[in-house]
Design goal:
Largest sheet: none
Strand content: under 5%
Structural class: mainly alpha
Order of helices and strands: HHHHHHHH
Number of strands: 0
Radius of gyration: 16 Å
């Protein structure tokens, strides 16, 4: 196990990745899906609160960072009209299903269930960006996803108590962001569509 202070290193790496995406959004190079990024700001805040309630400790810092960057990126998407991604019915349906997941969390109010529903809600909110990353990788910034993947991996390597409250959200973020990073970095969708 790594010293738990490595969570702070991971948070800094995630913040640098988020700053890169934020700058590209303001410049109009990155085009964040507003449904995804608004829910990526809200859902991890709920997971963070649940983790704190469950006594997770410093590892919950990673979850907080996963909320703050998307919030700033969502706000920045209104600054430059070139950074706007056109929403379609698929985006809105995923957003609505994500909100239902949040409602189910609210009804249960149990820590681990809140984290599980947060993961489900975040995953549903992520679908539009996963599809966009597959079809239009040039509209994304790879550094956000790489930073979050590193942060999640470092967080997982600091865990001493292997309960769902401790590893659930970081493990999910590692898988999600590793997937999006791969789609964007290696332009998998573009390569597969050429075959």
């Amino acid at each position: 196990m790594l010293n738990e202070k490595f969570v702070i290193v991971g948070a800094v790496i995630a913040a640098i990745g988020g700053l890169s995406y934020l700058i590209d959004t303001i410049k109009g190079k990155a085009k964040p899906n507003r449904v995804t990024f608004s829910l990526w700001a809200l859902v991890p805040l709920i997971a963070f609160a649940a983790e704190v309630k469950q006594g997770v400790g410093i590892q919950s810092l990673m979850t907080l960072m996963v909320a703050l960057s998307p919030l700033s990126i969502f706000i920045a998407s209104f600054v430059n009209k070139k950074s706007e991604w056109k929403l379609n019915s698929f985006d809105l349906i995923c957003g609505a299903l994500s909100l239902i997941g949040l409602l189910l969390w609210y009804i249960t109010k149990v820590g681990n269930i809140a984290i599980a529903f947060s993961i489900i809600a975040d995953g549903l909110a992520s679908l539009p960006t996963i599809v966009k990353s597959y079809k239009y990788p040039e509209t994304e910034n790879v550094w956000l996803y790489l930073g979050y993947s590193i942060s999640a991996a470092l967080t997982l390597l600091t865990i001493n108590t292997w309960g769902f409250a401790h590893y659930g959200f970081p493990f999910y973020i590692l898988i999600l962001c590793g997937t999006i990073f791969s789609l964007v970095q290696f332009k998998i969708g573009k390569k597969l569509s050429k075959d």
